[in-house]
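Researcher: Quick test of sequence recovery. C-alpha cells follow.
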C-alpha cells in the first residue's frame, strides 16, 4: 500500500520536457511513477487541474543559522522550497566564532548552546536537529579568511594563513560541502586578490565542487568581473556559478546582453558555468556595504554596487530603531536634515552598523533577459529579518510562476520548473532529487497553476503565496492547504 497517491495531476517533471497528465505515488520517502489511479494508498490527493512538480531547490540561501533557530524556515517551505543551499556570498557557517561574527553583518545570531567546531559537526547537528527542508552547504570565503588572517584588511595572506584556509576548505569538502563561495564586494573578501581565490578553489577539483561568487563588481565593472570569475574557474579547473547576476545602476542598464553573450561564450568553450537570479529590480544588502562601495557618492560614477537615490533605498532591518523599518533613506534624511552620506553615517554610527536595506537600481528588461537565458537558475538570496525584509525571501518562486510564466509568458512553465529543480540538482550533484522520477526522493509540490501568486510586497513582505496546496519533503507532508505542518522531515544534502 502506498503512503500517498496523487492522481490526475499535470506532471511537470523538472526535465524541461512537455507536461503530461499522470498519477504518482509516494512510498517509503520515494516517488513511484506511472501507477494506476485505483492503486491502494493510505491517503489520496486528487490533483485534477493541478500541477505536480519536484520541490524547488534554492541555490542561494542565507539561512545557515536560521535553520537551527527557526527550523520551520517558514518563508522557504511555504513557497515550495524543499532544499536550500546555504553559505553563499562568502558568508559561511564554520569555523563557528568567525561565522557568527561574519553572519552578524546580515542578521543577529542569537547566543545558543548549540555550537560546532567544523563542518562535520555542523552536519551532525543538523542530522540530529528537526528542520522542515533539506540543507546543502557551501564553504564561505569571508568566514575562513576572518578565522585565518591576522589582519583582515591585507590583500595577500601569508603562506601559513593560506595553508590554514586550504585546510578548512579540505575539511568542509571531506564533510560533504557542495562547494566554496566568495563575496568579493564585501569585507573581508574584497581585499583578496584573484590569485588567492584560484589557489583556494583548486581544492574543489578533487571533489567536483562548485565555485560560487558574488562578483567583485555588478555595475560598471560587470564584464571585467565575469572575466575574473570565469578565469578562476578555468585556472582551478572547477565548475562556476555567478550569484544573482544583474547589471545595477542606471548608467549600466542594458549590459545584460553583453554579460550573457560573454557567459554563453565561456560555456560554449567548455567551462561549466551557470548563473542564478531573483526576479526583482531591487537588491538587498547592508547599508554599510553600499556606503563603502560609493553608492551614495554621486560625484563619482564608479560604484561596484551601483548607484541608488535616497528615495530608492528602503530600510528593511534597523536594530535599535524598529520605527525606521519600512522608511526610505530619503525619509530619514528629512528627519535628520542632512545630506545623504551624512545621513547614512549617522545611522551607522548612532543607530546600528547592521542595517539591511532593499535598494532599487536594476532595469526590468535586464531581469527578463537574464531569466530567459539557458544558463540561469533561480535563487532567493532571501534574508528574512526585520519587519520589512526584501520580498524575495517570501515570494521568489511563486513570482516567477505568476508574473513571468502566467502573465508575461517570458518562459514556459516546464522551463521555469527546470530552472528551479533539475538544473540546480545537476549543477551541485544532488543525487536523486530535482525530478519527478521513479525511486527519487519524494520532494514534491502540488499547486494550482491558475491561482499561484506571490503575495509578498515591499510594503507587506512577510506574506506567503496562494495556490501552493501541498509540499512534501522526503515523502512527508510538510504543507497542506497553504499551512505548515509540524513534520520536520528535512535532511542534510552531502556531497
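Model:
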Amino acid at each position: 500500500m502506498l503512503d500517498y497517491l496523487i492522481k490526475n495531476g499535470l506532471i511537470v517533471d523538472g526535465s524541461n520536457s512537455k507536461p503530461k497528465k499522470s498519477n504518482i505515488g509516494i512510498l517509503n520517502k520515494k516517488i513511484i511513477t506511472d501507477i494506476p489511479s485505483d492503486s491502494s494508498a493510505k491517503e489520496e490527493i486528487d490533483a485534477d487541474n493541478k500541477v505536480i512538480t519536484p520541490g524547488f531547490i534554492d541555490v542561494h540561501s542565507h539561512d545557515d543559522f536560521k535553520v537551527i533557530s527557526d527550523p520551520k524556515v517558514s518563508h522557504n517551505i511555504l513557497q515550495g522550497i524543499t532544499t536550500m543551499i546555504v553559505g553563499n556570498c562568502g558568508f559561511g557557517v564554520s569555523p563557528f566564532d568567525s561565522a557568527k561574527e561574519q553572519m552578524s553583518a546580515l542578521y543577529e545570531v542569537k547566543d545558543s548552546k548549540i555550537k560546532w567546531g567544523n563542518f562535520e559537526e555542523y552536519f551532525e547537528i543538523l542530522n540530529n536537529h528537526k528542520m522542515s527542508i533539506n540543507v546543502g552547504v557551501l564553504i564561505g570565503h569571508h568566514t575562513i579568511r576572518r578565522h585565518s588572517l591576522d589582519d583582515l584588511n591585507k590583500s595577500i595572506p601569508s603562506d601559513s594563513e593560506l595553508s590554514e584556509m586550504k585546510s578548512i576548505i579540505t575539511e568542509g569538502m571531506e564533510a560533504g560541502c557542495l562547494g566554496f563561495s566568495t563575496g568579493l564586494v564585501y569585507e573581508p573578501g574584497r581585499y583578496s586578490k584573484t590569485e588567492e581565490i584560484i589557489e583556494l578553489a583548486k581544492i574543489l577539483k578533487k571533489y567536483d565542487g562548485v565555485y560560487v561568487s558574488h562578483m567583485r563588481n555588478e555595475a560598471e565593472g560587470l564584464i571585467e568581473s565575469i572575466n575574473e570569475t570565469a578565469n578562476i574557474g578555468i585556472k582551478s579547473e572547477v565548475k562556476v556559478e555567478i550569484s544573482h547576476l544583474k547589471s545595477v545602476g542606471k548608467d549600466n542598464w542594458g549590459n545584460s546582453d553583453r554579460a550573457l553573450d560573454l557567459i554563453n561564450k565561456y560555456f560554449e568553450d567548455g567551462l561549466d558555468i551557470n548563473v542564478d537570479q531573483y526576479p526583482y529590480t531591487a537588491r538587498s544588502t547592508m547599508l554599510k556595504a553600499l556606503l563603502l562601495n560609493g553608492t551614495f557618492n554621486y560625484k563619482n560614477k564608479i560604484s561596484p554596487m551601483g548607484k541608488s537615490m535616497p528615495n530608492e533605498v528602503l530600510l528593511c532591518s534597523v536594530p535599535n530603531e524598529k520605527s525606521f523599518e519600512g522608511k526610505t533613506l530619503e525619509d530619514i534624511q528629512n528627519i535628520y536634515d542632512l545630506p545623504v552620506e551624512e545621513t547614512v553615517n549617522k545611522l551607522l554610527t548612532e543607530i546600528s552598523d547592521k542595517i539591511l536595506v532593499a535598494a532599487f537600481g536594476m532595469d526590468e528588461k535586464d531581469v527578463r533577459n537574464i531569466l530567459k537565458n539557458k544558463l540561469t537558475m533561480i535563487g532567493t538570496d532571501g534574508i528574512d529579518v526585520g519587519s520589512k525584509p526584501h520580498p524575495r525571501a517570501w515570494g521568489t518562486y511563486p513570482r516567477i510562476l505568476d508574473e513571468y510564466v502566467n502573465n508575461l509568458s517570458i518562459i514556459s512553465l516546464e522551463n521555469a520548473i527546470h530552472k528551479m529543480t533539475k538544473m540546480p540538482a545537476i549543477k551541485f550533484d544532488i543525487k536523486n532529487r530535482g525530478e519527478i522520477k521513479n525511486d527519487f526522493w519524494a520532494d514534491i509540490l502540488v499547486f494550482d497553476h491558475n491561482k499561484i501568486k506571490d503575495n509578498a510586497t515591499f510594503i507587506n513582505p512577510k506574506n506567503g503565496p496562494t495556490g501552493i496546496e501541498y509540499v512534501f519533503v522526503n515523502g512527508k507532508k510538510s504543507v497542506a492547504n497553504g499551512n505548515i505542518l509540524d513534520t520536520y522531515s528535512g535532511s542534510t544534502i552531502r556531497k
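Residues 283-360 form a domain with the Dna Ligase; domain 1 fold (CATH 3.30.1490.130).
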